[in-house]
Design a protein that fits this description.
mainly alpha, extended, DUF6587
Length: about 80
């Protein structure tokens, strides 16, 4: 019984990880809800901050993701 519970939790974490990597817009409501829940309970401020960061729309970066010297080298910093 305990093994089924552990494996189920592990599968849920893996599914959440891959959903966040492949389709972050699908996970935004989850992160927003988690941030609101943790905020109202006043627990785990670090996790709340991370959830708020993941729930907010990020700045889309193009090119080489803002590395130094990308503009001066004509777009090729790698």
């Amino acid at each position: 019984m305990v093994q089924i519970l552990i494996v189920s939790i592990l599968v849920l974490f893996c599914a959440g990880y891959w959903l966040q990597r492949l389709a972050p817009s699908l996970m935004k409501p989850f992160w927003r809800g988690l941030a609101l829940t943790l905020s109202s309970l006043h627990v785990l401020p670090g996790l709340r901050g991370k959830a708020e960061k993941l729930a907010s729309p990020g700045i889309t970066r193009t090119g080489c993701r803002g590395c130094k010297g990308c503009d001066s080298k004509g777009g090729g910093c790698h």
